[in-house]
Each structure stands twice: as C-alpha cells, then as structure tokens.
C-alpha cells in the first residue's frame, strides 16, 4: 500500500529579499494527522516559508503543494481547507469577536458562517464573543485566531508562533487545543522558536536555520540521533557508576561532583530510553542506592537542537531525502 | 459576493474615520459655513446666496468626507493586519478589492444626500430680508453634482488607499486640490482646458451643473464635455487600476 500523500510538501523553496537570501532551498514533508513543529530561532526563515505557502509572498524558486494541490497555480483549491495564523492573530479592534469571525466567514462560504458559534465555543470564547476585540487579552486573541482558522473546517492548520505572549496557563490551553485538533485527524503545522513548546505539543519537527532545513523527522528520531544519555542524582555516585557500567544496555558511565552520574545508553528511541531508565533505577534501588533525581530526555532533544542550530554553514548540507524521517543536514 | 459586500459595509460602519467623515461633510462644512455667514455683516444671511456658497464648499473641502470613506475602505484591512488572513483563504485578491467599491458607494451616497440636504434645509429655513429665497428647483439642480463628485472622489481615494497610500496623503491631496488648485486654476484665464478637466470638482460641475468654487473664483468656465469625461475617467480608471494591481500583486 502506498504512503498517504503529505498534506504539505516543498522542494527547493527559495526566497530573496534584496541581497539577502532568507530561504535557501527548503524541503519539507508534513504527513497527515500530526502536529508538526517548525522550529528555528527568530529570523531563521520560518515566517517567510509560511507566507510563501499561503501565497502572501511569491517564492523565487522551488515547488510547493498543500493538500495535494500545486501552489501557486491551484492556490484557491489548495487553501480552501487551510486555516492559518500568520505572525500574530490580528483583528479589527473596534468590532466584536463574533463580527470579526463573520467578516472572515463572508470571504469563505455560507457553511463557514454556520460554524461560528461552534468555533467560539471550541476555543472558550462564547461568553465574550460580543465584546470588542480591542478589549481582549493576547491569549483571547490567540484563541479567536484559532476559532477563525476553524471556520473553513481545516484539514491543515498553519500556526505561526501561536504561543507568543501567552502565559503558562494560556500555553497549556493552546497545547490541549492543538492536540485535540490532531486527535480529530487534522494536521497542525506549528512554527515556534520555543523548543519546549514544540516538544510538548508536536509529534514531528523540522529544524530551520539561516533559511535551510537542518533536520526533520519525528521527535524520537530527532532526539535519538544523538548519543542517548541520562543523568542521575544519587549518593555514592562513583560506586553506582561501577555497578551500571557492567550492564549490557549501558555504554558508559561517568560520576561527577554533587552526586551527579551520567549514563550513556545503548538505545535508539525515546521509548526504549524510558524503559531502560526505569530498569536502571530499579537495579540501583535493588543494590541499596537511592536515586533522588533523573533527568528527562528533554535535555537531550534540547542539546540536539542547539547543536544543530549552532553549526556553521560549512557543516550544513542540503538534505534530499523524500521520507519524512530525520535526516541530518 | 453579496455577503462580502455586507461584511465591508459592517467594517466601514465600525470605523471611526467614516463617522468623522460624516460629521465633517454633513455637519461641519454646511453648518460652519452658515455660522460664518450669520456672524459676518458683509454677507446676506441664508437664502440662495448662502446656499450657493455652502454647496460650493460641500463640493470643495467637503470632499474630504467621501475621500476619508474611500481611503479607509482601501487601507482598513491592511492597517488592522487582517488582509493577509483574508488573502490566505485562497479567495482571489482581486475580489477582495472589487467588493470594496459597492460598499464605498453604499456609504457615500447617503452621505452625499445628507451633505446636500442639510445646507439646503438650513438655507431655506434661515433667511434675512436682504437675501433671495432658495428655491427647491435650484437645490435639485445641485444634487447630481454633489452625488457624482462625492462618488468619484470616494472611489479615487479607494484606489489610492488600496495602492498603499495612507489616509493623510489622500486627505491632504483633496484639501490641496479643492482649496488651492481648483480656485487658482479657475481664476486664471490661461489655465489649459486639459488641466481643468483633471480637477474632478470642475469636470463634474461642467458636466452636470452645480455650484462651482472654480467659477466663483474666476470667469465662467467652458470645458468640452468629452474632455471633462476624459478627466474623470482618467482619475477613476487610473486610481482603481493601480489600487487593484497593488492589492493583487503586493506582498500581503
């Protein structure tokens, strides 16, 4: 059986503003039904890629497909079931939330108008829908932006830095909302410069730096492509290091100051790492140790991404794989 | 498409600039002119004389009102940052531009009617013994000029606003045109016809009659009708084509 067609696909996408090439041959493949993080520092080219996908600015070179339709040729059909927030959700401040949605729905179709109450309910703004948007908090505007995305019953949502300016509670709500959209079979393409946000929200990610994709794939693959390691905190770290070094699933250990013990694992996936971590802790406890701290794989992913983002241009090579798995640039 | 036009109308109704335009055109210009008329001992109060001057001013600086409506319709989505979201729906950008035109006309026509009716009613009601009464046949003769000039100016401003010009340059341009260029050009016998034809208030009053600030400042004008139509068409077609082009092709 053939693989389902990606909902978003680009090849060799390029964009230049004056002398500066801000997007330099971006290849992306986003499969259906996932939350896909588009991760990179500010100025890496994330928003420019999104603007090209949405037809807001023209690409200088390369090909793009959304939901199986070519861009820009079949733009109307391609974008018909794409909901997007570009940069930040903007509205007519003197109009109510409901009126702003109605204006957007008028550009779509009659069915979109009928979805307004449900969309407002979905993002928890039904009670404030008739207030002027000028009085909304940033979190409420972000939610209203997502409600606006929902009006076209989207197969794909493109959210550009949706967590910007949100407080921790707002970020948690956003995360839950994104996950619920994915659970319905929709695809969410979420750009962010916040690694933590991508890691907690997304199933897959692409990392962009200086206009180039330096890695993409599932978060497991992304994290596991670096030598996996965990860090334990426990008394008598030196003795514990000797004990664990004898295990076949441990590649090496090193005990440091402050009860710190670093353990390098023989494992390729995060789920495998979680299993081994549990076994190591049980093993230590069975031998009279009492670990009081275990670092999560988050730090590994963070290390990995920081490593990718800090490499020089010479080390980065365009990736050419067609499979949506991690291939380091 | 009709829902998009209704949406444009709703947006215009919710914009402060539109209410400011209405206040300026319907209240400030006619009532202000009559107040000056009342406190001035040199002119007659009310009647046909005051009505004539007031309508000429409605067709002069009073055009700031329709210009504000037009330029607001042209820039509101971009100013609010909403245009990119609308463009990202896949709806052709040209259609986002075209729906602004009927919405602007729908706002400007009542505005023009009010800016014509208010001074006429006031001048009919307030009159001292020295002024001839204003007749309604005279008033009705003024109506086409007010309607056509307001619509032409509003649509021109819509085109220029959509092309990326801000409100200030467009409003400033209208004021400079109506308070400076039109009276001066009208007062100079050497002004070529083609230049007069490019002044919308002059072209319209030459075509359909009505009080003209240009004529009040100088000699009677006699602009060929074809040239007047050409002048108006140049403004309308030029600004609308430019506005549409920028709406469709500029980065959103």
UniProtKB/TrEMBL annotation, chain A:
SMART domains: AAA. Transmembrane segments: none annotated. The keyword ATP-binding applies. The keyword Nucleotide-binding applies. InterPro entries: AAA+_ATPase, ABC_transporter-like_ATP-bd, ABC_transporter-like_CS, P-loop_NTPase. Keywords: ATP-binding, Nucleotide-binding, Transport. GO terms for molecular function: ATP binding; ATP hydrolysis activity. Belongs to the ABC transporter superfamily. This is ABC transporter ATP-binding protein. It comes from Patulibacter medicamentivorans.
């Amino acid at each position: 059986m053939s693989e389902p067609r990606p909902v978003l696909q680009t090849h060799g996408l390029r964009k230049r503003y004056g002398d500066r090439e801000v997007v330099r041959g971006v290849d992306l493949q986003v499969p259906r039904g996932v939350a896909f993080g588009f991760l990179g520092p500010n100025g890496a080219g994330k928003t420019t890629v999104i603007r090209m996908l949405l037809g807001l600015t023209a690409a200088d070179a390369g090909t793009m497909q959304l939901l199986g339709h070519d861009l820009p040729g079949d733009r109307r059909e391609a974008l018909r079931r794409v909901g997007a927030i570009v940069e930040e959700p903007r509205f007519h401040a003197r109009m109510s939330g409901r009126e702003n949605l109605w204006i957007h729905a008028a550009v779509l179709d009659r069915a979109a108008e009928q979805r307004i109450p449900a969309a407002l309910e979905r993002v928890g703004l039904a009670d404030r829908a008739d207030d002027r948007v000028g009085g909304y908090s940033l979190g409420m505007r972000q939610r209203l932006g997502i409600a606006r995305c929902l009006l076209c019953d989207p197969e794909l949502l493109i959210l550009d830095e949706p967590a910007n300016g949100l407080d921790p509670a707002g970020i948690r709500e956003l995360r839950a909302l994104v996950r619920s959209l994915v659970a319905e079979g929709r695809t969410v393409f979420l750009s962010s410069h916040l690694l933590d946000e991508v890691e907690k929200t997304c199933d897959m990610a692409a990392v962009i730096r200086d206009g180039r994709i330096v890695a993409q794939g599932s978060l497991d693959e992304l994290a596991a492509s670096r030598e996996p390691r965990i860090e334990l905190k426990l008394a008598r770290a030196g003795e514990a290091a000797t004990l664990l070094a004898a295990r076949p699933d441990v590649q090496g250990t090193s005990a440091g100051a402050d009860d710190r013990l670093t353990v390098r694992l023989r494992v390729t996936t995060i789920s495998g790492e979680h299993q081994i971590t549990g076994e190591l802790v049980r093993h230590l406890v069975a031998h009279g140790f009492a670990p009081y701290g275990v670092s999560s794989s988050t730090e590994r992913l963070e290390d990995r991404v920081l490593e990718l983002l800090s490499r020089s241009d010479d080390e980065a090579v365009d990736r050419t794989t067609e499979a949506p798995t991690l291939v380091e640039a | 498409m009709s829902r998009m036009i209704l949406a444009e109308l709703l947006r215009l109704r919710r914009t402060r600039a539109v209410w400011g335009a209405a206040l300026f055109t319907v209240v400030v210009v006619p009532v202000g002119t009559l107040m000056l008329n009342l406190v001035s001992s040199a002119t007659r109060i009310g009647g046909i004389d005051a009505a004539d001057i007031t309508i000429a001013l409605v067709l002069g600086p009073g055009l700031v009102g329709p210009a504000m409506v037009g330029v607001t319709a042209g820039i509101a989505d971009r100013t609010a940052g909403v245009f990119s979201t609308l463009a990202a729906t896949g709806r052709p950008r040209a259609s986002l531009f075209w729906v602004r035109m009927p919405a602007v006309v729908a706002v400007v026509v009542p505005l023009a009617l009010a800016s014509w009716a208010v001074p006429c009613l006031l001048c009919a009601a307030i009159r001292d013994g020295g002024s001839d009464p204003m007749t309604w046949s005279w008033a009705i003769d003024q109506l086409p000029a007010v309607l056509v000039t307001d619509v032409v100016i509003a649509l021109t401003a819509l085109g220029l606003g959509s092309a990326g010009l801000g409100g200030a340059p467009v409003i400033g341009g209208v004021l400079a045109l109506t308070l400076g260029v039109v009276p001066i050009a009208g007062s100079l016998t050497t002004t070529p016809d083609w230049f007069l034809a490019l002044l919308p208030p002059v072209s319209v009053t030459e075509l359909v009659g009505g009080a003209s600030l240009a004529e009040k400042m100088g000699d009677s004008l006699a602009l060929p009708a074809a040239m007047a139509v050409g002048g108006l068409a140049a403004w309308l077609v030029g600004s609308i084509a430019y506005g549409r082009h920028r709406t469709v092709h500029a980065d959103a």
